[in-house]
Amino acid sequence: MRNTPIDQVDSTPRAVLAIGTDYPEHHLLVTHRHRRAQVLYAASGVMRVETTHGTWTVPTRRAVLIPSEVDHRVEMAGVSTRSLYLEPGAVPWFPAQCRVVEVSPLLRELLLAAVDMPTMYDTRGRDGVLADLILRELQTLAPAPFDLLLPRHVELRRLCQEFQGRPTIGSTPQDWARRLRCSTRTLNRWFRSETGLTFQQWRQRACVLHAVRALLSGATVTAVAGDLGYDTPAAFTVMFQRETGASPSAFRAP
User: Fold this and answer.
1) What is the CATH number of domain 150-251?
2) Predicted local confidence at residue 254, as pLDDT
3) Phi, psi for 194 (deg, rounded to 5)
């Protein structure tokens, strides 16, 4: 199916529904939820998924797993998607929170083929085998480091959201602690307990995700490094590769 709203076919008695959708530049899907679990794949462009728990950046040729009944919004830049909508009972292993995953070459081809399946595909024919293979392949996908959890603490959460708008490695825990009127020890305790990361780790992840979106939008490595406060592109590249396992050039817009 292509460019079909899931609400029109949600009740179809099939475990896997695949829909391909093309979105206009800088499109925003406002907060919504699905009854089915969703695998949202970026065939092109970059997406940013937001929930009350955090944000997930989805570069080209990656996917995000979105659990059923989870409120989320999606910001899109030049995106064409392939979505799988899965009956919750068919994926008992699905994560409780969103998760960005690397998409294997096999699953990529399965996704491209699945969107051409009819809604009421034959479960005992080729399309049924393809759907079963998709469910098996999904369980093998490796998580990718493109998530950024947000703390529950109201004031700290506000600072985190503000920082995401203009991240810089020059921001220090002392600055944050002063604005929150707490000690740096307390600040780090909040970050560890509510995001699973230290302040420095969270700051670096925020910078990396900002860089991924900027690179895929056409910015140069030098420009992104300078924007984030790095003295040299080389220093930025070392950090980026350590965090993502790939060089910044791998995320340059084609």
Assistant:
1) 1.10.10.60
2) 60
3) -110, -15
Looking at domain 6-138, which of 3.30.930.10, 2.60.120.280, 3.30.160.40, 1.10.760.10 is its CATH number? 2.60.120.280
Q: What mean pLDDT is predicted for residues 224-232?
A: 96
Nearest to 72 by CA among 98, 91, 96, 95: 98
Cα 249 from chain centre = 19
**For the chain, which residues make up each domain, given as ranges?**
6-138, 150-251
Q: What is the pTM of this model?
A: 0.91
Tell me what the mean pLDDT of segment 109-137 comes to.
96
Q: What is the DSSP letter of 124?
A: T
Long-range contacts of the stretch 219-228 (C-beta < 8 A, 24+): 221/248, 221/249, 221/252, 224/248, 228/167, 228/168, 228/169
Q: Where would I find the beta strands (DSSP E) of 67-224? A: 72-86, 99-102, 147-149
Number of Cβ within a 10 Å radius of residue 115: 19
